[in-house]
Design a protein that fits this description.
By secondary structure, the protein is an alpha+beta fold. The chain is 15% helix and 28% strand. Strand 6 and strand 7 form a beta hairpin. The longest helix has 17 residues. The termini are far apart.
Length: 206
């Protein structure tokens, strides 16, 4: 019958599922037809579902109803006067012929499909002029912030707003308030930069 050992059975090179350094788990679930139709229309279904989960998690961390995709905000246009206003003599701004309408969302979010609005709670970044109650515009396509930029970071399943700085080969989450400690990111931690803050929206400080 020949030598079956040479032809069948045993481990074959390249066989089986490819290995990955990231632990994963497969889920199967049923969805109502309206949700199923929405998922079916996505170019990448897995990324869409994961994005929905991340958004839900951020809403939980940053309080309910405070994480909103930029694409879900209504367009708003305001008159824009393209002149230089200095802190000197008054300049009249009551001539509509000198103004043009601009879309505020497009101005603050050049790439709204990758931006979210998050309301801040806490005072750990006050020296970066980010105060409790402020609204941040976060671009999740920018995942490599400089040391001067503020980022939304995920550390072991928890989300925080900090600067991410590398020192001596180690990562640190650095607040902008001396009352809060720096947090070291170790190799055993699960860490990701979720997005970079591009604009801060708040009322003028008194």
């Amino acid at each position: 019958m020949g030598n079956l050992e040479n032809n069948y059975g045993g481990k074959r090179e390249g066989a089986g599922r490819p290995k990955t350094d990231i632990e994963t788990k497969t889920f199967t679930f049923r969805a109502p037809m309206d949700i199923a139709n929405l998922i079916d229309h996505q170019a990448n279904k897995s990324d869409f579902i994961k994005e929905c989960i991340v958004t839900s998690r951020l809403q939980e961390i940053f309080k309910n109803d405070t994480v909103v995709p930029a694409t879900e905000t209504a367009d708003l246009t305001l008159p824009f006067f393209d002149i230089n206003v200095v802190a000197g003599f008054p300049v009249p701004l009551d001539n509509d012929e000198k103004s043009q309408d601009i879309n505020i969302l497009r101005l603050l979010c050049p790439h709204p499909e990758s931006c979210y609005l998050i309301r801040v709670e806490g005072e750990s970044m006050i020296e970066a002029d980010i105060h409790s109650g402020d609204i941040l515009i976060v671009d999740k396509s920018k995942r490599n912030p400089s040391e001067s930029e503020v980022a939304v970071c995920e550390l072991n399943g928890e989300y925080t707003i900090k600067r991410f700085i590398k020192r001596d080969g180690c990562g640190w989450l650095v607040p902008a308030n001396p009352k809060f400690p720096e947090i070291k990111v170790t190799e055993s931690d699960t860490f990701n930069v979720w997005g970079t803050v591009t604009y801060i929206i708040h009322k003028p400080r008194e």
